[in-house]
Amino acid sequence: MKLSILDQSPISSNKSAREALYESMELAQVGEMLGYTRFWMTEHHDLPGLASSAPEVMLGVIGSNTERIRLGSGATLLPHYKPYKVAEVFNTLATLFPGRIDLGLGRAPGGSAEVTNALSDNFLQKVYSMPSLVQDLLHFLDDDFPADHQFSKVSPSPVPEESPEPWLLGTSPKSALLAAENGLAYTFGQFMSDKDGVAIIQDYLDAYVPRKSGHAPQVMVTVNAFCAETSDKAKDVSLSSFIWSLQKAKGEGQRGVPSIEEAKQYKLDDREKETLVNMRQNSIIGNPQEVKQKLIELQTNYQADEIMIHTITYSAEDRINSYKLIAAELIRKD
């Protein structure tokens, strides 16, 4: 099975942002050693507890400290930027790290309304223009604007030998169709969606139009997964992430991911208890054999070519251990 890693550079309550970023680099190095296919970093803005606001910067650092694993954004929030600048940034990365760069695209704001205004003007209007933004970006990456287009003589330098591989990320039929119509690989964020992902991916497969000769649809599903030597330990390890999500929903959690002990002591009201149950049901939690079986079922149900795993823990060691245990069960090393 092809497995990949999605990382948000979570900051634990006993760590600094600098430590979180270096832990991301270490995770990428471990992921490469274990045989994971990709290491993607998210883009979030002014969210306490997450250090990944500029994935393109971290990808350059991580690329210099790894050799093979593909690196990408999950996702670059395109409505905040001009497509030309995005093409320049990722062409630069693709020039530095040939054949290793992915460009994941999303349309979410990545932060509060105030942050959105600080990042860009007319964000909602640009969200509505997402189809044309995507098309312009693809033309820049392929250097194939029509001769009469205003950008026909504009080239996003440097021009790499192998262009970044574009992906579209989403959680809705709208994003799936946008990916299909533009011949893009598609990543469904199962870990942050309550929609019928199986139907959404089928819509993508049915509507897919190849962007270039020989291109075929690619489906990746991103899921929360927590693995430990025993089911009980995995449940404990996952609790820090879930309680932190509940804290953030109440405007708390500024200190970062709580320890397992702190998470166990957190008082939940009835509504939060129900939310916690739903979080667990939407995640894969267990010992190596349990997680293996659930990931295989997920891949089959979603017709996925690849599974991307998202794991937030208080302890960096627990997070790395989770990825190690999963890799030992599912990643073949020929």
UniProtKB/TrEMBL annotation:
Enzyme class: oxidoreductase
Alphabetical keyword list: Oxidoreductase
Coiled coil spans: none
Stored Gene3D superfamilies: Luciferase-like domain
InterPro entries per record: Bact_Lucif_Oxidored (IPR050766), CmoO-like (IPR019949), Luciferase-like_dom (IPR011251), Luciferase-like_sf (IPR036661)
EC number: 1.-.-.-
GO MF, any single term: oxidoreductase activity
Any Pfam family the entry gives: Bac_luciferase
Isomerase listed as a keyword: no
Residue ranges of domain Luciferase-like in the record: 1-299
SUPFAM superfamilies cross-referenced by the UniProt entry: Bacterial luciferase-like
Family stated for the protein in its record: To bacterial alkanal monooxygenase alpha and beta chains.
Entry protein name: LLM class flavin-dependent oxidoreductase
Higher taxonomy: Bacteria, Bacillati, Bacillota, Bacilli, Bacillales
